[in-house]
Design goal:
Layout: H1 3-9, H2 28-37, E1 44-46, H3 53-60, E2 65-69, E3 77-78, E4 89-94, H4 101-111, E5 112-121, H5 128-133, E6 140-145, E7 166-172, E8 180-183
Parallel strand pairs: 1-2, 1-4, 2-3, 4-5, 6-8
Antiparallel strand pairs: 5-7, 6-7
Helix pairs in contact: 2-3
Length: 184
């Protein structure tokens, strides 16, 4: 494997061209695959709603969804800093900014009464900090790993690319056990 290919595989951005504020809208198929395998009881907060890609689909599936984002991308209530919020909800389902995934997950545990679902890189399972702050709490119920790479599309790009392995990390704040792994 070439050096640049290996770096792209682990998430290194050799061209330093990440989207501003880590905005990578969730492809419809990725959200639909979650909704086909996981049902939610109660309301849902999509706290990094971006352009509404996930929220719209969850609403179409009959869920009561509150959508917010810190940045105005034309959907939901804007100017809402999730990491500063004290809003209590039943479930939180989001594709968090990659660089804040740990912070989003730990804060979501303090706000959700039932489920916390985060779209994250499979490599999110690694790391001493996450092990201590998240996984040792035994709230991770299951991980649904995509068998194919999720094709994220940057603003202005015509082609979506899937360079990294992703999965839905499904936590239950009332769970105390080891997770199961399945593939989608």
């Amino acid at each position: 494997m070439k050096k640049n290919s290996a770096l792209a595989y682990v998430g290194h951005n050799k061209d330093n061209d990440r989207e501003e504020n880590d905005f990578y809208p969730t492809p419809i198929g990725a959200t639909q695959s979650l909704l086909d395998r996981q049902k939610f009881d109660g309301n849902i907060w999509e706290c990094a709603c971006g352009n509404g890609a996930m929220s719209k689909l969850m609403i179409n599936e009959g869920y009561d969804v509150y959508s917010s984002d810190l940045i105005d991308r034309g959907y939901g209530e804007t100017g809402i800093d999730f990491l500063q919020s004290t809003r209590q909800v039943d479930n939180i389902v989001t594709n968090p900014p990659f660089n804040l995934a740990t912070e989003f997950t730990t804060h979501a545990f303090t706000l959700a009464k039932k489920k916390v679902v985060m779209l994250s890189k499979v490599s999110y399972l690694e790391g001493l900090k996450r092990r201590e702050q998240i996984f040792n709490k035994r709230k991770l119920e299951k991980v649904l790993i995509f068998s194919r790479r999720v094709p994220f599309k940057k603003q202005g790009d015509e082609v979506a690319r899937g360079l990294m392995a992703f999965g839905w990390f499904i936590y239950d704040v009332n769970y105390n056990g080891l997770p199961t792994i399945d593939w989608i």
